[in-house]
Amino acid sequence: MTGPRVGDRIDRYELLSPIGRGGVGAVYRVKHTMLGSEHALKVLLIDAASRRARLMREGRIQASLRHPHLVPVTDLIIQEGLLALVMDLVRGPSVELLRSQQLTVPEIDGLAAGVLSGAAVMHQHGTVHRDLKPANVLVEVVDGRVNALITDLGIAKLLLDDPHTEEVITRSGLILGTPGYMAPEQYRSARRVDARADVFSLGALLFRLASGVSAFPARSWAEAYERASKGARVQLKALRPDAPDRWERAIDAALSPDPDARPANAAELRTLWLEESDPAKIARVAKLRWPAERQRLIPKPTWTMAEVSTMDLPTPEPGPPPARPAPFRQAPPR
Predict the structure, then answer these.
(1) Catalytic residue numbers?
(2) Which pTM value belongs to this model?
(3) How confident is the model at residue 80 (pLDDT cuts 50, 70, 90)?
């Protein structure tokens, strides 16, 4: 499926411009033809409409997860076999585009508190993201406050819960997730992972946010798997000497190759990262107001929104990945 083009209409939405594209879906900036409001529309490029009732149920679950740090799903469209999710349009860049090395400890704490709070709500409602990474966390400035929002929550579950779509994914050799941010167990089966896989991804995301570089840089997903499964990475303080000890402890726990050694969910990881469990105090950290001169560190919107990531890989086999898989492209450290 090649996907719709700019100018097409899907239900009540006109496609204005592309935002991003991946192996599973494409995201567009769209306008409601009657209200004139702008939204983000995620169109799945794999036939995921074979189980209508299941998709409608999952759409309702996603729409119910209203939280300041989650990009909400506001509508689900099934039109002639095409499945599309309507989401709020975030007018800001992804964490991937932030100049992290220039951010202060309180600023990073504010962004981290937002991300971890959003993920905690997901986990509380039994939703596992399966693709938490810098490109899937968007940042926008609202009234002087810099807010971090997780996008594409639960979209991987929409795909994996559909037997027909799972067959398509397996047959085409697609893998759900992003090398460098996936827990070791997710390389073997994205369907069977739980919140602890998200915790690993959050640990890698926080490492990138704090240091500006990837915790597990690699030229192939086999190398990324090897590094993640052995915990082969540099310590955060070697890259950022001013990092608080609590950051190092939280990342060490989150990036444990053993799921049982990790925090059970994002709420536990948030407590480790902030050394704080009081919801009111956490909310204040996440709502830190940035002076105008500091807001300049947030790049202007480029309509970059990541989809559920996929890589064109050989058909997965049980056990560790093959020794020589196809390479993937990874952006150089900033």
Answers:
(1) 131
(2) 0.82
(3) confident
